[in-house]
Amino acid sequence: MRAKNRNNRSREEKHGANGALPRALKAGRQAREALSRLKNRFFLPGFLSEMRRLRIGGLSGGNRVKLLATGDACFDEFVNAINSARLSVNLETYIFNSDAVGWMIAELLVKKAKKGVEVNVIYDAVGCIGTSPAIFAFMRSGGVEVIEFHPVIPWRKYFNIDMRDHRKLLVVDGRTAFVGGMNIGNEYAGRRYRGGDWRDTHLRIEGPAVRDVQFFFFENWYRYGGAVVDISRHFPNMNEPGKKLLMVLCSKSRRQVKPIQESYISAINFAKQSIYITNAYFIPDARIYRALVRAAKRGVDVRLLLPGKSDMAIVQHASRYLF
Asked: How far is CA 154 from the centre of its chain?
């Protein structure tokens, strides 16, 4: 009888371990996921309504997005995309170094230009102040159209040293776009390219949102004297390869509105569940600072991932002052 009772208890314990408890855990997880989806449903309409009120941003569906979290992965994608170009390559960057990675990209661009691909490059004058002019002369002589953004000419009327082009974007054949934080330089590369392995993030985008990225490139291209291009090479008919909904914004507007800043504040204000921010130079203005504090006080999970080591000590100290 005692042995039978022990067997019964063991079967009950086994049933509890493999049955009721896992089911309860699963039910709890499903409930949390359902609550998360419900909160997100309330977030999106409010956020989009605010964007519409401010008359900034536009959504496009049917996109495919790939996250690139290392320099090696990013430069691999750059190389593959440029090599595959048949019509056009448009590159806009803050830093274009004359190091191993910079020359690798420059040589690829010249190679494609010599094969009849239309190649256009915009680089920032201050971001490239330490870059050898030889690399830009090499690209120009190889058929690449190159523009210097806002050259450093202090005596020019209305010159502003702070007016810089911090975009890092690449568009190939009007069908694939790359945007994010990776400049063209060894410091962003990893072991494969013998670089400094700086941590940054980039996105590869395919789909209708590529048109928006391309449009912003040509805004700067024509503003700073770029040659007229064959639009058919840059804005092809677009399919919808994925299911992602994207909103592409730039930092400037024709009105007195800062689209990216306003989108951040709106997203923070309408957040229901979580706000995760990673930023190399985190010095928020008063509006963003107050919005984050209010979000945390109403129960939103607010997390900041900031660098322990920075290439700009003064920015790091200013950022930590807010801690």
From this structure: 32
The set of residues, in sequence order, having a beta carbon less than 8 Å from that of 33 and lying 6+ positions away, is none
Question: What is d(CA 30, CA 35) in angstroms, rounded to the nearest whole number?
Answer: 9
Q: What is the pTM of this model?
A: 0.83
Q: Which structural domains are found in the chain, ordered by start?
A: 39-57+249-323 (no CATH), 59-247 (3.30.870.10)
Higher pLDDT, 59 or 18: 59
What does the DSSP 8-state code read for residue 208? T
- Encoded amino acid at 98, one letter: S
Sequence-distant (6+) residues with CB within 8 A of 319 are: 281, 282, 283, 306
pLDDT computed for residue 14 by the predictor = 47
- How many CB atoms lie under 10 A from the CB of residue 104? 17
Instruction: For residues 231 and 211, give the distance between their C-alpha atoms in angstroms, rounded to a whole number.
Output: 12
The whole-angstrom separation of Cα 30 and Cα 4 is: 38
